[in-house]
Design goal:
About 35% of the residues lie in helices and about 25% in strands. It has about 300 residues and is α/β, with parallel strands linked by helices.
């Protein structure tokens, strides 16, 4: 189980200051044994104390990402992610029209978004922690455009990129503000950051409460629209826009996700639906309101 929703026995009433606005926080619930601190002022939630490196390393093994073990399953997963990438690139193209733009994706995985951007005439680069994923992404791109590491370990030119995109990344970081400051530094003046992360304001969070699927040990921070706006503003971004995110998913993917990260009632229901749904329909793409937000901001 990724979470219990129960208060750990070790939780205390000692105030912890919010790392974003410095206001005192309270313990709201817990993810396993890790207290979730809640800031009443900016609505940020975060694990404190954070799990140590060994605990996180045990989570991020080769089985962490939901992908198939056969070529057909890999192809279906790539097709689904590419369809979501098309939606993101349509939005970026509307906000930054023209070819020849330079796009950096952090946490690019197998490079689905980079492939789509490259086909639209962007000069692309990527940063990815998984060396295996880097190999796949570069093979798909036909060149060594993706580097293994993080934005803090890879040397990147200052004020070079028109777009820096990162989906489902910032919630995993120990210091989101330092990360965004680095993003700001590599963007051109007028360049745009595109941020996607689970949202405390989402329908799934409101429905599931402390059993929310996104309450996981590896998610160190949980953002609302207000707190992500405050974070971007504190890193000198402006023209901040925030909206609910939509992703292209399949019933089969949802079943695999909720089977891995079990939620009472929801997981059994989706499991039952998957069992009675023919494969052709279970693998069909559907656009659904995801549990996250998408934020854009200018340098």
């Amino acid at each position: 189980m990724p979470h219990t929703g129960e208060m750990p026995a070790s939780a205390t009433n000692v105030p912890v200051l919010c790392p974003l606005c410095a206001a005192p926080t309270r313990v709201g619930s817990a993810v396993e044994v890790h207290p979730v601190q809640v800031c009443a002022r900016c609505h940020l939630e975060f694990l404190h104390p954070q799990p140590d490196d060994a605990a996180l390393a045990a989570i991020y093994d080769e089985s962490y990402f939901l992908h198939g073990q056969v070529a057909e399953a890999e192809e279906r997963m790539s097709s689904m992610k590419r369809a979501t990438a098309v939606r993101y690139m349509d939005m970026i193209g509307h906000m930054l029209p023209g070819r020849g733009r330079r796009l950096l994706e952090i946490g690019c995985g197998h490079g689905d978004m980079l492939v789509e951007a490259s086909m639209r005439g962007y000069e692309v680069a990527g940063v990815e922690f998984s060396a295996h994923a880097v190999e796949i992404a570069n093979r798909r791109l036909g060149r060594s455009a993706v580097s293994a590491g993080s934005i803090g370990t890879i040397e990147l030119p200052a004020e070079y990129f028109d777009v820096v995109a990162f989906a489902d990344v910032i919630e995993h970081l120990r210091d989101p503000k330092a990360f965004l400051q680095r993003v700001h530094a590599v963007l051109k003046p007028g360049g745009m950051a595109v941020l996607i992360t689970p949202s405390l304001d989402s329908w799934s969070r409101r429905t599931m409460g402390t059993k929310w699927i996104e309450y996981k040990v590896e998610h160190l921070f949980y953002f609302s629209r207000r707190s992500i706006w405050e974070l971007l503003r504190s890193c000198a971004f402006h023209e901040i826009g925030i909206q609910s995110n939509r992703k292209v998913l399949t019933l089969d993917y949802l079943w695999r996700h909720f089977d891995r990260f079990k939620v009472p009632v929801v997981s059994p229901l989706i499991g039952l639906l998957r069992r009675v749904t023919p494969d052709a329909l279970a693998h069909r793409h559907i656009v659904i309101p995801a549990s996250g937000l998408i934020a854009t901001a200018r340098k």
